[in-house]
Amino acid sequence: MLGFSSGKTLLVAAPVAALLAASAAQGAEVSVAVAANFTAPMQKIAAAFEQDTGHKAQLSFGATGKFYAQIANGAPFGVLLAADDSTPERIAREGLGDGATRFTYAIGQLVLWSKQAGYVDADGKVLNKSDWKHIAIANPKLAPYGQAAMQTLDKLGLRAQVQPRIVQGENIAQAYQFAASGNAPLGFVALSQVMEGGKLREGSAWVVPAGMHEPIRQDAIVLKPAQGNAAAAALMDYLRGEKARAIIQSYGYSF
């Protein structure tokens, strides 16, 4: 009887062990809130990350300000890739994330862009013209790129002149959609949205000099729900690696 019982236990345990081994091989998973400007590079990074590590990053894209509100209200994100450095700093200060994990994964670049080739000159002087009706800008209260756009207009002394023609997107992705659809002939967008492989995909653009606005330092942080999550830790390491950095740079970011 004892021998039979022992053998039966082994027969049951073997498939369970196999399932556990398969689960471990598949890796862990982490939910990642990603600033809208970083959509294209992060999609590529996430695919490479899963292939190289076995871990999976579930991506959600949106405005950093909205993500903060969701995180503060208990949204179960594991990692935040913000469009600024102040939001992750605030998250750490309020105990919503681990401040020790915070680092700058990219420095963003603002660009004045038009879908129409030759429309935007190399110095952005098109802003002084009166023959265009609308310019798309992300909500400066929620999106750092929108804030940088308004700072640029202030630096140029054009806020009052341009303000009535602003079409405001909820985030930088929506601002880009307004410009890409032609509903707005101009848009202040992220260089990453119109550049790939080191080249402008289409249209014309003025890359706004860094001195026209505050630096767009984009920080990452591990959030409270993902403390101890292997995929979260692996992703933070991966973002610092050569493969991820090459992808990030190909979209016009610096470090």
Features:
single chain, 255 residues, alpha/beta, D-Maltodextrin-Binding Protein, domain 2, five-stranded mixed β-sheet, globular, disordered N terminus
Please, could you describe this protein's structure?
By secondary structure, the chain is of the alpha/beta class. It has two domains: 28-108 and 216-250, 3-Layer(aba) Sandwich (D-Maltodextrin-Binding Protein, domain 2), CATH 3.40.190.10; 110-212, D-Maltodextrin-Binding Protein, domain 2 (3-Layer(aba) Sandwich), CATH 3.40.190.10. The chain is built from ten helices and twelve strands. It has helices at residues 2-26, 39-53, 64-72, 86-93, 144-156, 159-162, 172-180, 191-194, 230-239, 242-250, and strands at residues 29-35, 56-62, 79-81, 97-108, 110-114, 135-138, 166-169, 186-190, 195-196, 199-200, 204-207, 216-223. It has a five-stranded mixed sheet with strand order 2-1-3-12-4. Strand 9 (195-196) and strand 10 form a beta hairpin. Helix 2 packs antiparallel against helix 10. The N and C termini lie far apart (68 Å). Residues 1-14 and 16-24 have low confidence and may be disordered.
The ordered H/E elements are HEHEHEHEEEHHEHEHEEEEHH
How many structural domains in the coordinates? 2
CATH topology of the largest domain: D-Maltodextrin-Binding Protein, domain 2
What is the end-to-end distance? 68 Å
Q: What percent of residues are in strands?
A: 15-25%
The class by helix and strand makeup works out as alpha/beta
Looking across the biggest beta sheet, what order are the strands in?
A: 2-1-3-12-4
CATH-defined architecture of the largest domain: 3-Layer(aba) Sandwich
Taken from the alpha-carbon principal axes, the silhouette is globular
Major beta-sheet overview: 5 strands, mixed
Average pLDDT across residues?
91
Task: Find the count of extended strands (DSSP E, 2+ residues).
Answer: 12
Helix content: 40-55%
CATH superfamily of the largest domain: Periplasmic binding protein-like II
Question: Spans with pLDDT under 50 lasting ≥5 residues?
Answer: 1-14, 16-24
CATH class of the largest domain: Alpha Beta
